[in-house]
Amino acid sequence: MEELERRENIVSIEECPRCGLKNKRKFQQGDYVLKQSGKCPKCNTPMYIKLIYAEPFKP
Ligand SMILES: [Zn+2]
Q1: Measured in angstroms, how far is the CA atom of residue 24 from the centroid of ligand 1?
Q2: CA 46 – ligand 1 centroid, Å
Q3: Model's pTM, two decimal places?
Q4: Buried b (16+ CB within 10 A) or exposed e, 6-37
Q5: Domains of the chain, CATH where assigned
Q6: From the CA of 17, how far away is ligand 1's center (Å)?
Q7: Which of 14, 24, 41, 42 is most deeply buried (CB count within 10 A of its CB)?
Q8: DSSP secondary structure of the chain
Q9: What is the pLDDT of residues 35-50, one digit of tens each?
Q10: How much distance in Å is there from the Cα of 40 to the middle of ligand 1?
């Protein structure tokens, strides 16, 4: 089952619950919604993954 022809890009959206800052980054193994994910660069509050989705590759 190694035939992973990836036509899409999985991304994770992190959000700061305090100031609402959003950060989009590449999905990493082990990510899930509501997982704590680093600290907000603005207010130093722990950020949470709000959304994980796949977007198609744009050539
Ligand atoms: Zn913040």
Answers
A1: 14
A2: 8
A3: 0.80
A4: eeeeeebbbbbeeeeeebeeeeeeebeeeeeb
A5: 8-56 (3.30.1330.30)
A6: 7
A7: 14
A8: -------EEEEEEEE-TTT--EEEEE--TT--TT-EEEE-TTT-PEEEEEEEEEEE---
A9: 999 999 999 999 999 9
A10: 5
User: Ligand 1 centre from 20 Cα, in Å?
Assistant: 6
Q: How many CA atoms lie within 13 A of 49 on its CB side?
A: 17
Residue ranges with CB less than 5 Å from ion ligand 1: 16, 18-19, 21, 40, 42-43, 45
